[in-house]
Design goal:
mainly alpha; 6 helices; globular; disordered N terminus
């Protein structure tokens, strides 16, 4: 049991802390797209909907110069990262390896 507790799954939001905001957003977006692709058509509809909503929000925020977002967009992207950092955590193929 102790080995199980020691294996903490790091989410991409925390793992990329200190990197530029654009890199962090792209890493999380890619992770969520992979999780969505891994879900079957009838697997966990609530999770599917949550992932699709998170991705739609991200796509809407990623307009203009993502490397140099306005203060408002940067704030919203940061909030998006924090709000969705545990969504679908541990469900992607790369996490199961």
């Amino acid at each position: 049991m102790a080995g199980f507790l020691d294996r903490k799954i790091a989410n991409s939001t925390d793992a990329t802390r200190g990197q530029p905001l654009a890199a962090r957003v792209f890493a999380r977006k890619d992770e969520l797209e992979e999780a969505l692709a891994d879900l079957g058509p009838h697997d966990n509809p609530l999770l599917r909907q949550a992932i699709e909503t998170a991705l739609a929000t991200c796509y809407a925020l990623m307009t203009g110069d993502i490397a140099h977002p306005s203060d408002v967009v940067a704030r919203d992207l940061t909030r998006w990262l924090e709000r969705n950092k545990h969504l679908a955590q541990g469900t992607t193929r790369s996490r199961r390896r």
